[in-house]
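Weekly puzzle thread! Below is a chain. First person to post its structure in token form gets bragging rights.
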Amino acid sequence: MKKIDILIKKDQHRFNKLDDMMIKRISKKTKTKIMKVKVNNIINSLVAVLVISFIILAAIPNTPVNAFLKKTFSFIPGVGVIEQDDNQEITSILIKPVTYEKDGLFLDIYAAYIQGNTFHIKVESNIYNENSDEVRTKLQTSSFKDISSDLYLYIGSKKIKQSMLWGSEGIFEASFLLEDVPNNNEIYTIGFTRSNLTFDLAMTTIQTASDKDLIANWIVADDIIFFANMERKENDVSIIISHVTSRDLENLTYEWREYESELFSQPVHVIDEQGNIYKPIKRPGNINRYINTFFFDIPITSQELQIVIPQVLYTQKAEKDITVSIPKLDQIKKINEVIDNSAFEILLNQLEYEIINGKGNLKIDLSGKDNQIDDFTIIRRVVTKFFTRKNIFSNFIMTSQSVNADIWRNLQGVVNGAYNDIKEKDKVKISFTIDYAYIKDIIIQLQ
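Winning reply:
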């Protein structure tokens, strides 16, 4: 026990990963025994391993499984399973998405919920598309940057402007404060004033669930609890994948972008009891709009379904920002400073200022060293943000900029970036965001 106590004090993060380590060890010991068994026996063996691991790990303090048993969760359509916050309880949700679709244009409010005294919505649309003058002409709307003056919540005669808005032209979220208005209504109206579109959202009181209700559709991997919620109507299967974690992860998803295709080979897929593999299909109308929701065409006769998540993509801010002077033209400035030391030791090696197509460009050279926390995490790329100041007495603020970050190969990557009026000897603060991928089959039994 003394050694374990020392380990906890020395490296709490590694101790929190005991559950994943133990699952790997148990799986390795049973691997040789199950290799010669038929597919259905293999599945049963793996499920048994996870159940045994769950029982063991539930008794170990400070592990995700142990913490999981003490929490209350709720399911929000279009979002998935979330952890309830005692101070900001979620009371009502939108059961069925509300959609506008005409002449190739669409706007989906695919999720809405009331948390505390705040009304939240999640929207996907091509109406607020900066590159489409045709869209703006059809609906007299504008680009995404102008949506903040266009979006309102109506409760009776009360008109409420959004208090927070974030996202991009295709997918965005908004929040509305319900101060001085009741938050127990059944109907809430969202209005987009310029396009003259309104949506009545029928809200339903939420149902909470304990671990016994969700245990069949969840698994722990790398300090993250993953949930899979399936709806099945004959051959049409839709699955929402969601997660709960104490880690500061952003933009967690399971699908890669086209420029990352060289890093990955398998999409999210479903396996049935016979070993048949089903890959995602596009929704009717060839539109796939819901984030982390996957659609499949699976014969109703196929049973004992499992969803396989081959990779988890997420983003984390680097631990350290760098403040530095822009080097002289065509000269290399050695930095050799560590900006992050979590999953990898990431080093800012050097900067080079150059002129490309008549414009100033800062070439940022980075490299990494594996800290061996696990065998499954890779760096996809590192992205930068630039902050400048008017003089030595003013604060650094983010400036207009363009950044092109290369895919990492052999733990090395380059970022090319520029901002307005970049020049030699400028003092600039650079922040770094690290795009990671956790590459390991995460398998969840579906019920």
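Puzzle host: Confirmed. Bonus trivia for everyone else. Residues 235 and 298 are 5 Å apart (CA to CA).
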